[in-house]
Amino acid sequence: MTPLSHQGYKGLVENQVLLVEDDPAITQGLTYLLESDGFTVRACSNPAQAYQALDEHSFILTILDINLPGGTGYQVCREIRRRGNLPVIFLSAMDAEMNVVMGLELGADDYIIKPFRSRELLSRVHSVLRRHKHGAEGRSIRFGDLEIDTAQAKIHRAGQEILLSALEYKLLLVFAGHPGRVYTRAQLLEALWDEAGGFFNDNTLSVYVKRLREKIERDPQNPELIQTVRGMGYKGG
Fold first, then answer.
1. 92, 124, 128, 96: which is closest to 204 by C-alpha?
2. Could you give the C-alpha distances from 107 to 94, 116, 219, in angstroms and in order?
3. Which of 67, 85, 197, 200 has the greatest CB tally within 10 Å of its CB?
4. Would 16-136 and 140-236 be classified into the same CATH topology?
5. Taking Cα atoms as reference points, which of 121, 135, 144 lies closest to residue 166?
6. DSSP H stretches of helix in 37-165
7. Beta strands 182-184 and 233-236: pairing type?
8. What pLDDT, in 10s, does the model give residues 14-58?
9. pTM for the whole thing?
10. Mean of pLDDT values over 181-203
11. Which residue from 50, 23, 53, 17 is spatially nearest to 35, judged by alpha carbons?
12. Domain 140-236 class?
């Protein structure tokens, strides 16, 4: 497997994944699975160990459990986002929608629920890495009065940055990529399925459209960038 470069964080010295998991059996199984697929794994069992690893090593991906001794995976994710744009996947038995949404709003790229299938986990790991690789090779997109820098996954209006969660950003790119095109709700769900998994449903889509409008529209009550097409779905203005 060819190592992927990861710009905007640290220089990549190994094809290395940071695994933060306190269950020894899961750690052993995941380490074997990932190393069989060509990765190098550095395992930590608590947030303090994870912070030290982030200080001392370079990674292309982090896989985080949520319930950890001495802290939570949410705290580790916040620290990773404070430092840069390292891809993050939550791996947790906590499957309530509020846990999933919280993880994604903290900036995680994916949320996988235990128990998981080995092939599915590897597929989603590679999907996250591909998205980040393509983002590093990206371009600037104008969408209304927004400037979307796909290389850094940043959005600005008149020089002011607009902060979005990972899924909000993905949803914005769908509309910005084809302004004027009408997307049915089913098409949007399909477009976001790879990032969000099976927990992302029609009700969750409505929540994300509402939140995205609140962040990017000058008047969320009269949206211009993401318009509702009654009886069909949404379109980008």
1. 96
2. 17, 22, 25
3. 200
4. no
5. 135
6. 47-56, 73-83, 97-105, 118-136
7. antiparallel
8. 589 999 999 999 999 999 999 999 999 999 999 999 999 998 888
9. 0.56
10. 72
11. 17
12. mainly alpha
Taking residues 77-100, what's their average pLDDT?
Answer: 85
Distance CA(185)–CA(189), nearest Å, equals: 6
Q: What is the DSSP string of 148-194?
A: EETTTTEEEETTEEE---HHHHHHHHHHHHSTT-EEEHHHHHHHHHH
CATH code, residues 16-136: 3.40.50.2300
Domain range annotation of the chain: 16-136, 140-236
Residue 109 reports pLDDT greater than 90: no
Average pLDDT over the chain, rounded to an integer: 84
Enter the tokens of residue 79: 């620290």
Other CB atoms within 10 A of residue 63 CB: 24
Does pLDDT of 10 surpass 50?
Answer: no
**Cis peptide leading into 3, omega within 30 of 0?**
no
For residue 43, give the DSSP letter.
E
> Each residue of 123-137: pLDDT tens digit?
989 888 887 775 555
